[in-house]
Design goal:
The structure is a single chain. By secondary structure, the chain is of the alpha+beta class. It folds into two domains: about 200 residues, Arc Repressor Mutant, subunit A, CATH 1.10.10.60; about 280 residues, Endonuclease III, domain 1 (Orthogonal Bundle). A five-stranded antiparallel beta sheet has the order 5-9-8-7-6. A four-stranded mixed beta sheet has the order 3-1-2-4. The two termini are about 35 Å apart.
Length: about 500
C-alpha cells in the first residue's frame, strides 16, 4: 500500500481520526510505532516513516506505543482494497488459520502458491503472512492484559500462543516489559489466584462513522426467536463452538469509536475466534468513509449515502445459519421466513447449556448441520423442495464442500449454485453476508430492481449495468438501496 509521506505527516499533526487504522507512524529515534491519533508530541518529519499495518512496523523492529495502544486501532487493513486474495487471506489469519497451520495451507485455501502469497503480502502490506499472524497474537494479548482480569496463562492461550514461556518471551521482547508489568487493571489479589471471570468485556474498535441504528433496523425483523435478541441498545445471541455453548452481547458506546462486547464462554482459547466473528457480524473492518466516497459519486446513490453515513453490511455469526435463513427467505416475506427459522430452532435446536447459569430469554442454539442433514423438515411446513435444499446444504457442510474459503466471489457463487434449491439470489446473499464478499450483489432481487424505478422495475441486466460503477462495493450499494426502500429483501 503506497502512503504519501506529506499527507500522512499532516494527519499525524492534526491527530485526524479519519486516518486511524489506515497507517501507523514508526519513529526512528524511539523505535516505537503509533496510531495517527497518538497524544504524544508529534515527532519531527524526518524521523517518521509510515507503514500500512502494525505487522510491517513489527517486522522492522519497532515496538507498539503504550499510550495510543495500536491493539485497539480499527482493523481497516483487514479489508485490503488492492488485491482481493490478500483480503481473504487476512480474514483467514484473523480467524486463526496460522495459529497452528502453515503458509502453504493458507495459500491453498485462497487458491494460489505460497511463494506468490508471500510476495503479495510483502508487496502490499510490508510483512509476510507469519509476521501478520504473530503481530495479531501480540496485540490481542496486549488488549486482554489491559481490558480483562484473565490470568496470564489464560491470556496466552486466548491469544493463540502455544506455551506460556513463548508468550512471556515475545511480550518481553516486543514491549520491553513483562506481561505482568503491562497489566493496567489493579486487583486486590494476584490475578493468577483470582477465579476465572464468568464473562469478559472487550472493546471492538471501528473507524467512524458507524450507523448502529441502521444496522439494528436491518437485523430486528430477522431475529431468530430463542437464539437472538436486538434493540437500539444491544445485540445478544447464543453461540455454539466445538459443542460448547455461550452467549455474546454487543452494545454501542455513545461518543466512542468502539462497540463493547461481553463474552460468556467456557474456553478461553475461543475468545479470539469469537471476537473475530463479532467483528465480521458488525462489519467493523470496513472503511466506511472510503466506501461512501466511492458510492456517492453516482447521483442515483448520493442522497441515500448521505442519509445513512456509516452504513455497514451486517455479517453472520455462522455461515451455515445464515445460509439456512437465506433459503427459508426465498420468495416469501421477511416475517414469514423469520417465523419458520424460529420454528426450526424450537424443534431441532439444542437447549442452551451454560457452565454458569444466567437469566436470559435466549434458550437455544441454532441447529447443527449434522442434525438438519437427516431431519424431516417438511413437518415444519416447508415445501419438499425447500426442505431438500436445506438438507442438501447441511450434508455438504458436514462433508466440508461449501461455506469454506473461496478464491473469488465467482467461484463461491458457482459452488453454491450447484446445490439443489440455491439460485443466484441466494448464493449472492450468502456471499454478501456470510462470506463477507464486498462486491456480492443479488441483482435478481425485486427490492433492488424496484428501488431505482418504483413504477417499472429494472431488469436484472439493466441493474447490473447500472451497478458496474459501484464495484467493488456493490454489497454496500445493495444495503443503501434496501434500507432506503423499507428493508425489502
Amino acid at each position: 500500500m503506497k502512503l504519501d509521506h506529506e499527507t500522512c505527516y499532516r494527519a499525524v499533526q492534526a491527530r485526524d481520526r479519519r486516518f486511524d487504522g489506515r497507517f501507523f507512524t514508526a519513529v526512528l529515534t524511539t523505535k516505537i510505532y503509533c496510531r495517527p491519533i497518538c497524544p504524544a508530541p508529534t515527532p519531527k518529519r524526518e524521523n517518521c516513516i509510515f507503514l500500512s499495518c502494525a505487522a510491517a512496523a513489527h517486522e522492522k523492529g519497532f515496538r507498539p506505543c503504550l499510550r495510543c495502544r495500536p491493539e485497539i486501532s480499527p482493523g481497516l487493513f483487514a479489508q485490503f482494497e488492492g488485491v482481493a486474495v490478500v483480503s481473504r487471506a487476512l480474514s483467514l489469519i484473523a480467524e486463526g488459520a496460522l495459529d497452528d497451520g502453515k503458509v502453504a495451507d493458507l495459500a491453498e485455501q485462497v487458491g494460489m502458491g505460497d511463494r506468490h502469497l508471500r510476495r503479495l503480502f510483502t508487496e502490499h502490506l510490508g510483512a509476510p503472512p507469519l509476521a501478520v499472524a504473530q503481530t495479531r497474537r501480540i496485540l490481542f494479548a496486549k488488549q486482554l492484559i489491559d481490558e480483562t482480569s484473565l490470568s496470564m496463562t489464560d491470556v496466552a492461550m486466548a491469544a493463540g500462543f502455544m506455551s506460556i514461556r513463548r508468550f512471556n518471551e515475545v511480550m518481553q521482547k516486543t514491549y520491553q516489559r513483562s506481561p505482568r508489568e503491562l497489566r493496567r487493571i489493579h486487583v486486590a489479589e494476584d490475578p493468577e489466584n483470582n477465579p476465572k471471570p464468568a464473562e469478559i468485556t472487550l472493546k471492538l474498535p471501528f473507524s467512524p462513522p458507524y450507523h448502529w441504528s441502521a444496522l439494528v433496523r436491518f437485523l430486528a425483523p430477522r431475529v431468530i426467536s430463542g437464539v437472538e435478541a436486538v434493540s437500539f441498545d444491544f445485540y445478544c445471541r447464543t453461540i455454539c463452538l466445538d459443542g460448547l455453548h455461550g452467549i455474546v452481547e454487543v452494545r454501542p458506546v455513545e461518543g466512542q469509536n468502539h462497540l463493547l462486547s461481553k463474552i460468556r464462554f467456557p474456553k478461553v482459547v475461543a475468545i479470539a475466534p469469537i471476537v473475530e466473528r463479532l467483528r465480521r457480524v458488525f462489519d467493523l473492518n470496513a472503511n466506511a468513509t472510503e466506501i461512501a466516497a466511492h458510492l456517492e459519486r453516482d447521483p442515483l446513490l448520493r442522497d441515500r449515502v448521505l442519509a445513512l453515513q456509516g452504513l455497514r453490511v451486517p455479517g453472520a455469526w455462522d455461515s451455515f445459519e445464515l445460509a439456512v435463513r437465506a433459503i427459508l427467505g426465498q420468495q416469501i416475506s421477511v416475517a414469514a421466513a423469520t417465523k419458520l427459522a424460529g420454528r426450526l430452532v424450537e424443534v431441532y435446536g439444542e437447549p442452551l447449556n451454560l457452565e454458569t447459569p444466567t437469566e436470559t430469554p435466549l434458550q437455544r442454539v441454532f441447529p447443527r448441520p449434522e442434525v438438519l442433514a437427516i431431519a424431516d423438515l417438511t413437518q415444519l411446513g416447508l415445501t419438499r423442495a425447500r426442505a431438500k435444499a436445506i438438507s442438501s446444504l447441511a450434508t455438504a457442510v458436514v462433508e466440508g464442500q461449501v461455506l469454506s474459503s473461496f478464491s473469488s466471489l465467482e467461484s463461491a457463487v458457482q459452488t453454491l449454485c450447484e446445490l439443489p434449491g440455491i439460485g443466484e439470489w441466494t448464493a449472492h446473499y450468502i456471499a454478501m453476508r456470510a462470506l463477507r464478499e464486498p462486491d456480492a450483489f443479488p441483482a435478481t432481487d425485486l427490492g433492488l430492481r424496484r428501488s431505482l424505478s418504483p413504477n417499472n422495475p429494472l431488469t436484472k441486466t439493466q441493474l447490473l449495468e447500472m451497478a458496474q460503477s459501484w464495484r467493488p462495493w456493490r454489497a454496500y450499494a445493495a444495503m443503501y438501496l434496501w434500507l432506503s426502500e423499507g428493508l425489502e429483501e
